[in-house]
Amino acid sequence: MSLTLANVKQFLRDRNGEDASTRFDRIAEDIANDAHKALHGAGKFEFDKRFGKVVLTGNYNTGTVSIAAGGTALTGSGTTFTSAFANRYIRLNGENELYLISAYVSPTALTLETYQGDTALSGVSYEIIMPRVAAPSRFRCMQEPGSDNLTYPNLKYKSAHEIKQLHRLQHTLGQPEYFGFENVESSSVPAKWMWVWPAPDDEEVFELPYYVWPDDMTTSNDVVEIPFEAEDTYKLFLEAYLARYQKDPNWVNHLAYAKEQAAETLGNTRSASRPRQTEAWYYGCDDDRMIQRDVVLAPGEPAYE
Q1: CA separation for the pair 50, 52 (Å, rounded)
Q2: Looking at the structure, do residues 150 and 286 belong to the same domain, yes or no?
Q3: 158 with 249, same domain?
Q4: Do residue 152 and residue 76 come from a single domain?
Q5: If we measure between CA atoms, which residue out of 40, 283, 287, 288 comes closest to residue 143?
Q6: Which domain-ending residue is among 83, 111, 129?
Q7: Which structural domain, as residue segments, surrounds residue 183?
Q8: Is the pTM above the cut of 0.85?
Q9: DSSP of 185-222
Q10: Both 148 and 233 in a single domain?
Q11: Any residues with CB less than 8 A from the CB of 226 and at least 6 apart, and which?
Q12: Residue 63: is its pLDDT beyond 90?
């Protein structure tokens, strides 16, 4: 039977000597989710592996555009802008500077970040590109993929800041050579944008093998996203965060112990066996190292052994 939020709340009530109450249920839910994220963040576990597809579309430059100096309203002539252009980037009049398209208005109008040019532009050429795309939902970090699972296995890692600088320095389109990730604000789990350089001139599809963050649990029947073998370790995280609620000054030590146990006991908790393959590129959760090693892949949703 799967471990559910209702089970976890009962465990916390028992540990804290509580009867069922709306007040403690809210606290128990927060503890359950904090502990859940902490367990998943304690290592790169096989049960967290997923594959997701991201699509970067090619450039668009039909017609001409006009904008006032220091303005945000871009007007097109002979253009067929669409709502899909929101959150893409635009170059104006052959410049290297990129401006974010913050909103779609109509087939002949877009809203941009403030145009930094000293003079107005009228009837000039432009280029809408897509150098970044939202990473899959709940994306945490890249795993170590086999080369046959990637469109471009030889992409090299750079930070998102470095990639943005490349776009500003070199007006280049073509087959992407570098990739990197940028954190974005999120009200629940962390989210990321995937940046590439150069931006593709035609549509590109990437298969991303990655580790996930768990969803927040909000209803009694929500399942804790861990295999049976991880449940005892999860209880250690629950006890650590319960100690924090109880204002136990040793709660940080309890949390450190839970993380150590997760790293020691869950490293070999794998999903269904897969053939060993050699990775082609790698971006770790905690560092920027490029490494070469054999890995075990688990495409799709994992099936636990």
Answers
A1: 7
A2: yes
A3: no
A4: no
A5: 283
A6: 129
A7: 49-56+132-213+272-296
A8: no
A9: --SSS-EEEEEEESBPSS-EEEEEEEEEPPPPP-STTP
A10: no
A11: 3, 36, 39, 40, 47, 234
A12: yes
Residue 268 amino acid letter: N
191-248 pLDDT per residue, tens: 889 999 999 999 988 878 888 999 999 999 999 999 888 999 999 999 999 999 999 9
> How do strand 121-124 and strand 126-129 relate by DSSP bridges?
unpaired
Give CA–CA dist 91/107, Å, rounded.
18
Q: Both 21 and 139 in a single domain?
A: no
Q: Is residue 12 part of a domain?
A: yes
Same domain, 70 and 119: yes
What is the pLDDT, as a whole number, of residue 287? 40
Of the candidates 48, 97, 90, 94, which has an alpha carbon nearest to the alpha carbon of residue 73? 90
The closest of 304, 305, 285, 284 to 293, measured between CA atoms, is 284
Residues with Cβ within 8 Å of residue 244, at least 6 apart in sequence: 251, 255
Residues in the chain: 305
For residues 92 and 75, is the Cβ–Cβ distance under 8 A? no
183: three-class secondary structure by DSSP: strand
Question: Please, what is the Cα angle at 147 between 298 and 301, to 5 degrees?
Answer: 20
Both tokens of 26, joined, read 């809210």
Dihedrals phi, psi of 143, to nearest 5 degrees: -95, -170
pLDDT digits (tens, 9 = 90+) for 43-60: 888 888 888 888 999 999
